[in-house]
Amino acid sequence: MFQSFLSQLITDMNWAALNNPNPEEKEPKSSDFYHLGAIDLPEKPRKIDFWRSGLMGFAKMKQQQQQLQHSVAVKMNSSSNEQVGNNKKGSTFIQEHRALLPKGLILWTIFVGFISRGIYQWMDDSSKVRREEVLVSMCDQRARMLQDQFSVSVNHVHALAILVSTFHYHKNPSAIDQGTFADYTARTAFERPLLSGVAYAEKVVNAEREMFESQHNWVIKTMDTGEPSPVRDEYAPVIFSQDSVSYLESLDMMSGEEDRENILRARETGKAVLTSPFRLLASHHLGVVLTFPVYKASLPKNPTVQERIAATAGYLGGAFDVESLVENLLGQLAGNQAIVVHVYDITNASDPLVMYGNQDEEGDTSLYHESKLDFGDPFRKHKMICRYLQKAPIPLNVLTTVPLFFGICFLVGYILYSAGVHIVKVEDDFHEMQELKVRAEAADVAKSQFLATVSHEIRTPMNGILGMLAMLLDTELSSTQRDYAQTAQICGKALIALINEVLDRAKIEAGKLELESVPFDIRSILDDVLSLFSEESRNKRIELAVFVSDKVPEIVKGDSGRFRQIIINLVGNSVKFTEKGHIFVKVHLAEQAKDGAESNGVVSEDMIVASKPSSYNTLSGYEAADGRNSWDSFKHLVSEEELSLLEFDTSSSNVRLMVSIEDTGIGIPLAAQGRVFMPFMQADSSTSRTYGGTGIGLSISKCLVELMRGQISFVSRPRIGSTFWFTAVFDKCEKCSLKKPTVENLPSSFRGMRAIVVDAKPVRAAVTRYHMKRLGINVDVMTSLRTAVSSVTGRNGSSPLPLGTTKLDMILVEKDSWISTEDIDSEIRQMNSRTNGNVHHKTPKLALFATNITNSEFDRAKSAGFADTVIMKPLRASMIGACLQQVLELRKTRQQHPEGSSPATLKSLLTGKKILVVDDNMVNRRVAAGALKKFGAEVVCAESGQVALGLLQIPHSFDACFMDIQMPQMDGFEATRQIRMMEKEAKEKTKLEWHLPILAMTADVIHATYEECLKSGMDGYVSKPFEEENLYKSVAKSFKANPISDLSCSQS
Amino acid sequence: MLGLGVDRLQADINRLLTSLFHQGVLDEQFLQLQQLQDDTSPTFVYDVINIYFDESEKLLRSLRLLLMDREFSDYKKIGLHLNQLVGSSSSIGARRVRNVCVAFRSASELNNRPGCLRGLEVVEHEYHYLKNMMHELFQLEQQRLLAAGVRYPM
């Protein structure tokens, strides 16, 4: 009744757990009922609301269950955020100053602009300087030439003057008249190209006017009107004139203001004198009049002005056509168009008079050059100003260089800018990628965790379902109902198995799976695995065998559960895919395998090349994919073992084991071999249809093997079989011996026995021998039954066994050997009878090994004398032991409780014991009494410390006392102290040692309380309310410690 | 017909127990208690619970008296009583009673009279609720036993 409602309760209790402040307290107890279908449940079932939230959404779950798996995911997230932050901090200079990039470009452009401008300026300036230099030189050249031309003309006039003075005045009569003068001057005009004409005016004083007028037959006329001149002090009428200026004849030169001044100045200085420029009468060109004095007599050296005036005879004058002069001059020079020339008379500095040059023609006003002109007249000053006609053109090189420079620099700047922008972009992308990567990784972890959580949460209710189904199947059901329920259960189990695998996978991916390190016995683990598959292999008639090399230490430290899981997975696969032949699990040290492999390389090649022998030297005779387990290499392993057992390397602290699982199944298609270890990958989709399974197992195995610091690999040939092998590293554990009751204790009663194994197949024989060896039986292998029989009966003289010295206890025959040997039955029978008759020899018992046996074969075996037993394969040491015990009728030291279940043990511990329960609380008393009674104890109750003291007066018959601590009047500590005192007194009196185990009963078990318990002389404590396990622990401890109690603990 | 309601009764019992567990009135200690019951002591649970009710009744009465007293100051005694009550309640797995008793006890440790009065009320309420439920449970159990005991000749 209780069980049924209990299990119903369990699912509901998950709800109750919501209100339970401390769910962990009760979970372990109820969890016993959860482990129905699952192979391995490492974790306690968790609250069911978790499962719902797991479906509702990951985010929510995170918040709710932070203390659970998700905390890692959260951590991941936060750490990834930090990482991102760090990344941002670690960005480059460019990254940090990205905003400055466009500004930088603009600044650079402006800077380049300035530089370009500077360059322009510089080039422009230098060209200007050059231009100015050119101008200066041109101007000076022009001025010099003008001056030269002028002075040449003046010299000619000078020469003319000397001519006049010489021939007109010094000759008497005069050698010159108008005609001569005009002729001469006309003929020498080429020498004075700038003078339009020359004329000679004689100095006439008023006193001589009449005489002069009469002499020449004309009157002196004034220049402006042409009228006869009024009376003056002095006159200067023109007497000789060139033809070009013949109109000047008889005109008084002194009548013109300017001419008069000129004349006066000329006779005073004796030099050529110029007038200010004026328009010439004939050509309307600007011109000056040049006046030169002619003296009568030769002048003394350094003559005074008066002397000069007195000596003056006349004046020679000529109109100087400046404009023509300059025009001619410029015409002679190259590049005269390029510059504008102005000549000024600057005698009056404030009012310069233009002598040459068009005032409108300004030219380039920015640049000009002045050159002084000296025409020989000290009173007059002249200057020449030159300008360029056109403004300075911008030079072509400046025009090309500066924009080119600017362009190049700008481009360089732009390239740098775009490079910067590109770098920034790339770095941004990089950071983004990094962030995404972190997020992707986090998501991956989250996925795995989600998977782990969800599959875990599926598992919890699934266990409930399976449990309920199991219970349902226990009830009375109609066959249809049973069928339904069984189907449901099978489906549920499959689902659970799948979920477990997914959970494992997820756990591994989430990095949660940690291997434990506990000592375990590899051989017994392998036997366990074998026993799991024995049923199936027997049904399929395939041979399943395990062999562990002797070199492999008996006990290693590692994760036995995971090791087992890998082997179960691999063997399970093999069983699933094998229809005929064998599955052979072999464990040895990896170093051995290397040795084996060396010799093996040749062997396996031979195997393949060999012309298909009818039977292979493998376990079952079928061809295997990998030759490693064939006898040729195997015997190497076995013999090596026998020879070099002592060479066991003890230096390293761990061992590398190599496990290979060989089958003769369908093999793995070559195309699929590459993805065997990928999750959810099967050889092909048809595989899953034919054989079922998810294909996740191998990937988990791979992960597990890698966790064990090993490798996994396989060799497979389609239709021939596969051999999977993996290595795993375990810690050596020489000191630790297994005390756990789960370790299979092999019976030791066979030690020293001898047996003959008859098997034609050496590999199989070696396996048999291995198992026998574990039982302590010495084994000789014979290949044929006939030789065995003959050697036993001694009929054959050449006995390979020294039978006389050792007694033979049993003969173990492989079924195949027996079947194949015809007509042997009678001999066996004979042997049996013969040896039976022999008193000295104990009959060697006969046993038959068989993978499967038909009824007829069984009958034949019986008749042949294998009546003793048929040992069904797969072989396991414990099973052989059990069978042989049966055969040899050895007394079995059966273990009552091999599983060490505590209630039974507790019962054995407490049965018949008289126990005193001291508690003031009646209810507690009753419950404690009930519990103890249930375990077979006789219980006496006391409601207070005093009563207990009364009951415990020595001598008493109590075996133990359970004492409540919190009691009114006298508490548990006090009572115990008094009891101990009493015992002490009794010891002194009677010399008998009394020690009553006193166990405290307490509701709150904190450490301090426990210490106080021990201090007051108690032996231990039991937490209230009673829990079996707890109770058992304390009781076992204190009862063992009690020397008086004659309890025999069945655990030892 | 008599005897045919066994399954139904069992289901009722289970339902009742489930609801009690749900509400947190009982905890797994009660299951332990039930496991202690076997053929040698078929009424073990019933006995224990009855003792519990008797004892608790006394304690509650005494508590009420103590607290009703005008010039009362014996908080220590209240504490002792409550210890008893807590101990026995946890022994039978009466979880809610135990929890409210613990709260009550802490109030008494602080000499908090109003808190104590309130605690007492709550404890009494929980206690009566438990008692009712237990009565119902035992009644069902009895019926079930009756029904299970009936055998019809085939």
UniProtKB/TrEMBL annotation, chain A:
An example GO biological process term is: regulation of meristem development
Read off the SMART domains from this record.
CHASE, HATPase_c, HisKA, REC
Database matches in Gene3D superfamilies: 1.10.287.130, 3.40.50.2300, 6.10.250.1190, CHASE domain (3.30.450.350), Histidine kinase-like ATPase, C-terminal domain (3.30.565.10)
**EC number assigned by the record:** 2.7.13.3
One MF annotation (Gene Ontology) recorded for this entry: protein histidine kinase binding
Q: Which UniProt keywords apply?
A: Developmental protein, Endoplasmic reticulum, Kinase, Membrane, Phosphoprotein, Transferase, Transmembrane, Transmembrane helix
Protein name listed in UniProt: histidine kinase
Organism listed in the record = Raphanus sativus (Radish)
Which gene is this protein's source? LOC108830435
TrEMBL record, chain B:
Per the record, the gene is LOC108816820
- Pfam families attached to this UniProt entry: Hpt (PF01627)
Q: Which residues form the HPt domain?
A: 41-137
Protein keywords: Acetylation, Cytokinin signaling pathway, Cytoplasm, Nucleus, Two-component regulatory system
- Top-level division of the source organism's lineage: Eukaryota
Q: Name one GO cellular component term.
A: nucleus
Which molecular function term from Gene Ontology is one that the record holds? histidine phosphotransfer kinase activity
Regarding domains, what does the record say? Histidine-containing phosphotransfer domain (HPt) contains an active histidine that mediates the phosphotransfer.
Gene3D superfamilies, alphabetized: HPT domain
Q: What job does the chain carry out? A: Functions as a two-component phosphorelay mediators between cytokinin sensor histidine kinases and response regulators (B-type ARRs). Plays an important role in propagating cytokinin signal transduction.
- Just give the chief location class: cytoplasm
Q: Which one GO biological process term can you cite for this protein?
A: phosphorelay signal transduction system
Protein's UniProt name: Histidine-containing phosphotransfer protein
Checking PROSITE patterns in the record gives: HPT
Compartments where found? Cytoplasm, Cytosol; Nucleus
Entry's InterPro entries?
AHP1-5/YPD1 (IPR045871), HPT_dom_sf (IPR036641), Sig_transdc_His_kin_Hpt_dom (IPR008207)
